[in-house]
Amino acid sequence: MIRPLAVLVVLVLAALPACSDEYADHSGIPVVRPTGPAPPERESEQYVFGGVDGLRKVLETRVLRSAGVVKPVRSECDVERPTPRFTCTVDYDGERVTYLVTTSGSGWAEWEATTDSLVMTRAGVLAAVWREYSAHAAKLRCEDGIPETARVAPGTKLGQRCYFKPGADHPVYGEDSRIGGYPDTVAADLVVANGDIFVVPEKD
């Protein structure tokens, strides 16, 4: 005997419009668990402790986080004590990133370090995607063509994108779960910043 409630559920499901997952079959490089350690956490930069040596540590951390892959780094500045304007250079795997540092006020009350060129790596980008989404998503992949290593300006959006399939427990996209399925595949842009790699989901 067919229960009325079961008939109602079947009719409701049949009446739902068919939804197309736009990026479901989009090919790409699978994103797997990184084999190396994560870059160091970015500490508060409001005030630099340890003078110029402390600043060098801050800049080394920025370079490591932009590259996304931990490798030996060394740095040097052209002053021993802070002056209104000086330069510091961080060497990352043979690539030199030069920062122009400006200070004002007393000591490190106000300071800024800028560069026009950072080091990015494909492995670092893929690792950032994994760390950001693997806990609550599946089928992580990125478009082919991300350079193995390249120099980019801070804030550069790469020409490739990545994709992930959120699970029902995803803190943001899980709320969009549909009857009988999960949220659609999400596309995300990749931005290399001065001290970070941002994975920015496409807006609806």
Describe what this molecule looks like in 3D.
- With 204 residues, the chain is of the alpha+beta class.
- It folds into two domains: 20-34 and 121-201, no CATH class; 51-119.
- Helix content is 20%, strand content 34%.
- It is built from three helices and eleven strands.
- The protein has helices spanning 4-15, 51-67, 122-133, and strands at 29-30, 73-77, 85-92, 95-104, 110-114, 118-121, 137-142, 149-152, 156-166, 186-193, 196-201.
- The strands form three sheets. Strands 1-7-9-10-11 form a five-stranded antiparallel β-sheet.
- A hairpin with a 7-residue loop joins β2 (73-77) and β3.
- The protein is elongated, with a radius of gyration of 23 Å.
- The model is unreliable at 4-18 and 177-181 (pLDDT under 50).
Keywords:
about 200 residues; alpha+beta; 2 domains; 4-stranded antiparallel β-sheet; 3 helices; about 35% strand; DUF4333 domain-containing protein; signal
Overall, the morphology is elongated
Q: What is the rounded Rg? A: 23 Å
Major beta-sheet overview: 5 strands, antiparallel
What is the strand arrangement across the widest sheet? 1-7-9-10-11
Low-confidence region ranges? 4-18, 177-181
According to DSSP, the number of beta strands is 11
Helix content: 10-25%
Q: What is the count of structural domains?
A: 2
Query: What pattern of helices and strands is seen along the backbone?
Result: HEHEEEEEHEEEEE
